[in-house]
Structures are given as C-alpha cells and as structure tokens.
Design brief:
Elements (H helix, E strand, L loop, with lengths): L1 E5 L2 E5 L12 H9 L5 H7 L1 H11 L6 H12 L8 H15 L1
Antiparallel strand pairs: 1-2
Length: 100
C-alpha cells in the first residue's frame, strides 16, 4: 500500500489488481500475472509496449492488435475500443515487428 501526502491530510492509495481493469478478462489477467504484472499501477509504470514484449516472450500466440488495445486502454484509462489514433498506429507498427 502506498501513502501519498496531500496537504495536511494523508491519502492512502492501494494497488488495483489487474483483474479490476475493465479491459482485461480472466485470460488476459492470467497472462499478465504470469509475466509479473499483477496490478494496474505496475502496468502503467512498465508501459504497454514492455508488457506486450513480456507476453510475447512467454505466450506469443496472444500477441495481437486486440491485446495491444487492451493494454493501451488500461494504461490510459480508456475502453479498448476507444484508443486514440496515434497510439493505435504505434500498436500496429509494433505488431508488425512482433510478427516479422
């Protein structure tokens, strides 16, 4: 648990289990846990590209555009269907790298 100081008050912020992200179902959550990502905060700190790399090393068959969209959406607090064009273009380029 992290404590973040805010003025005279102390706010307590607990880590959010990866399963609580609206973009991940049981299979995606399990994949992330298997590569050492157990919380949403860990994913955000690591970044979606590194998370995708870790997944690709352990479970390459799960590397696809929808997985990238879910990872990006979780990092940006967006639904996986509403990824901005810039990030979506980055995801498509990275997918080409992984598939080559």
């Amino acid at each position: 648990m992290l404590c973040l100081k805010s003025g005279p008050n102390l706010k307590v912020k607990s880590d959010t289990p990866i399963e609580e992200s609206k973009n991940f179902g049981p299979v995606s959550s399990k994949l992330l846990r298997e590569v050492g990502i157990t919380t949403l905060e860990e994913l955000k700190e690591l970044g979606w590209q590194q998370a995708a790399f870790r997944i690709s090393q352990q479970n390459p068959r799960f590397i696809n555009l929808n997985m990238f969209r879910a990872l990006i959406g979780a990092c940006l607090a967006l639904d996986w269907r509403n990824i901005p064009a810039k990030e979506l273009a980055q995801a498509r380029e990275l997918l080409k790298v992984f598939k080559s």
